[in-house]
Amino acid sequence: MRITIRQIAEKAGVSRGTVDRVLNNRGKVRPEVEEKVRQIADELGYRPNLLGRALGMSKNNIKIGVISQAADTPFIKAALKGVEAATLEVENFGGSVIQQKITGISAEKTLKAMDDMLRQEVNAIAMMPVEDERIREKINLFSREYKIPIVTFNSDIEGTDRICFVGQNAVMCGKTAAALMGEFFRENGGEIAVISGFASNTSLSNRVRGFRDVMRKQFPKIQLLDTVYCEENDERAEELMEGILRRHPDLGGVYMTCYGEVGVCQCLKKAHREQDIVMVASDLMGKNYELLNKGFINLLIGQEAEGQGYEPVMILYRLLFNGEPPKQEYHYTDIVIKTKYNI
Question: Is the pTM of this model over 0.85?
Answer without folding.
Answer: no
